[in-house]
Design a protein that fits this description.
CATH topology of the largest domain: FAS1 domain
Distance between the termini: 74 Å
Oligomer: single chain
CATH class of the largest domain: Mainly Beta
Largest sheet: 7 strands, mixed
Number of domains: 2
Shape: globular
Number of strands: 9
Radius of gyration: 21 Å
Strand order of the largest sheet: 4-3-9-8-7-6-5
């Protein structure tokens, strides 16, 4: 089949325009989403927890821990999950050497327990947690994926989460909605018993 020289530039131009239109439509769709900026990056509700978390410069330690624990596929799954995501600064509050020892292959079981202690099955917005704590007359306990409970308490508009050891963590960024759940950024790592 012979292609006319006059048709070829038109066909190439049409193909380039088609690719540009698809790219622009995708970019426009993401721009229209109600995003929350976490760690300098927009978090898109159409993306899953992992797809968003890897872009936050404030959560590089958490992402490394999730990878070391083998939980990437789980947190990319359908969920829904509510994740209380400690920042790098939260991990730095742990005693020196704790993070390094948790990331070692022989500590995988303990790392999985710590990480899954930061996850509730289901999608809980701050309003959902507020309603639950009000119904429980101030504090509510909820079971984590790890199996132990976290205690949630509001003081004014601020949500404090208590772990099983009595340590408190505050939510600093709330309602970061994902395609498979929601993330609430926290300032302290929560530890199971």
């Amino acid at each position: 089949m012979k292609i006319s020289r006059s048709i070829l530039p038109t066909a190439v131009a049409a193909a380039v325009l088609a690719v540009a239109a698809v790219t622009a439509t995708s970019a426009l769709a993401q721009m229209k989403e109600q995003t929350v900026t976490v760690g300098g990056a927009p978090m898109y509700p159409s993306k899953n927890i992992i797809q968003n978390a890897v872009n936050s410069k404030d959560h590089t330690t958490l992402v490394a821990a999730v990878k070391a624990a083998g939980l990437v596929e789980t947190l990319q799954g359908t969920g829904p999950f509510t994740v209380f995501a400690p920042t790098n600064a939260a991990f730095s509050k742990l005693p020196p050497g704790t993070v390094d020892s948790l990331l070692k292959p022989e500590a995988k079981e303990k790392l999985v327990a710590v990480l899954t202690y930061h996850v509730l099955p289901g999608r809980y917005s701050i309003k959902d947690l507020w309603d639950a704590s009000n119904k429980a007359k101030g504090k509510v306990k909820m079971k984590t994926v790890e199996g132990e409970e976290l205690t949630f308490e509001f003081k004014g508009q601020a949500l404090t989460i208590w772990d099983s050891k009595g340590n408190a963590s505050r939510v600093t960024v709330q309602n970061v909605f994902q395609s498979n759940g929601v993330i609430h950024v926290v300032d302290t790592v929560l530890l199971p018993s």
